[in-house]
Description:
Layout: H1 3-16, H2 22-26, H3 33-45, H4 50-57, H5 61-73, E1 77-81, E2 89-93, H6 95-115, H7 121-141
Amino acid sequence: MDKSTHLIEFEMMLLGRSRLTARAIRGADRLDRSWYALLYRLIMGGPMSIGQLSDAMGLDTSTVNRQSAAMLRAGLVNRIPDPAGAIARKLRITAEGERRLEADRTDSVRALEDILADWSSEDVAAFAEYLKRFNSDIEQRHGRP
């Protein structure tokens, strides 16, 4: 590995522990990080079974099952019959889930805008494109869109 790869790994570790998101702004009302990701996926892909969510997120089915049960209790998702007629039920985000997700997204975007305020629009756009490319390459490597 070259020095740049080591630097990327270090910077990713710092980013992973960063508190720049909504939790720092709104505290306890913020969605759990795993709920945020699962709800975001349901917004993007529509209702999904636990197995489909597990595959899409690259998580163990038992993890998604645990998280979805907690989100059901919190009123963030509900279960609906599979429109294709399969026995499995699908999870669908509720209006409350959408409201909480959007509140967290808004707070996160504001926090990012504050951090990036001194960056040129070209630098912000380039950074966004590099992140998109990086995430796309990770998804391709793991066979998940």
